[in-house]
Amino acid sequence: MIVAENLVKEFRLTERKPGLVGSLSTLFTREHRIVRAVDDVSFTIPAGSKTAYIGANGAGKSTTIKMLTGIMTPTGGRCLVRGIEPYRHRQANARSIGVVFGQRSQLWWDLSVPDSFRILRRIYDVPDPVYRRNLTLYRELLDIDALGTTPVRQLSLGQRMRAEIAASLLHDPAVVFWDEPTIGLDMVLKDAVRHLVNHVHRELGTTVVLTSHDIADIAAICDSALVVDRGRVVHQGSIRDLLRTAERRSVVFDHRGGPDPGHACARIEQELPGVHASPAEDGRIKVDYPVDRFTSRQVLAFLLERFDLADCYAPEPDLEDVLRRIYAGGRSAPRTTGVAGPGQGDAA
Ligand SMILES: Nc1ncnc2c1ncn2[C@@H]1O[C@H](COP(=O)(O)OP(=O)(O)OP(=O)(O)O)[C@@H](O)[C@H]1O
Ligand SMILES: [Mg+2]
Fold first, then answer.
1. Domain ABC transporter: where (predicted)?
2. Which CATH architecture has domain 247-316?
3. Between vectors from CA 240 to CA 100 and to CA 202, what angle results, nearest 5°?
């Protein structure tokens, strides 16, 4: 189980004024700006769940994951990963977690992938059968042998990500934190990675925490979602619950006889204000309605009365639409406060 209790992370940045005079004045009086990247965040991620940590660029996802993996210490509050405060007990925490930061390599740049794996095997004391089983899996799914003995720094982004993903799972960790793991991967490899993590979760009950800007990753891997907006949690629950927050839903129907699709759409929009009707594939019609004005029952009753329905279904709301609305609502920099006075810029 992973717990965050009123977790806060602030960064103190030195404001530099433009120009030479400005730069010199920075030496004497330093203006600071506090960036609150994680703002009083509390959540519980149950063991064995697959949670998407979702939010717009700059929402505070990576910063939270850095605290959960022990790389950064919180400014306030605390977090626990399987009962351990990660930044206080980095080594104990490292044994039970696997980490991928798509933006930053966890591997040794001058070593080849097989050499890195051999070192990781020693560090984590991975038993022979586990090591062999996992290598077989990575050969099969990630074509890991094709990376050869090239040093990591000479690998392409996609090649390096395959190695990073494999390395994060090599010791059968109880929890994996994957921060943008599919960055740079082609479609086939993305599928393989989704398959791999689902396989590992099924076999070992691994807890998965994933951030990704690829909605397909979230849909293919996660059952729960934690949505953050400007450092704050705005939704926590199942993906299904998240979809229920959609402001618009739709019904697709097919009808016999009656007006042609163009006329049918015009009629629906005229009689149901705020509804958008459009011809869908195979002559079907898609009716898109705002949930604060109509219930699905009302829309269906209207369609049954006006048309001779041959078929009708309600597609799931689109996760991308739901997230787009949340992101658009908070599309701005995180909360900042100006602080003047002596001191130094602080990056961690
Ligand atoms: N080391 C740092 N020093 C100063 N500010 C930082 C630092 N790391 C992050 N920030 C700021 O904190 C905020 C949150 O950044 P973070 O990297 O956690 O966002 P994110 O949700 O992972 O975004 P993305 O989707 O772009 O990866 C941003 O405004 C960022 O500029
Ligand atoms: Mg990030």
1. 21-255
2. 2-Layer Sandwich (3.30)
3. 50
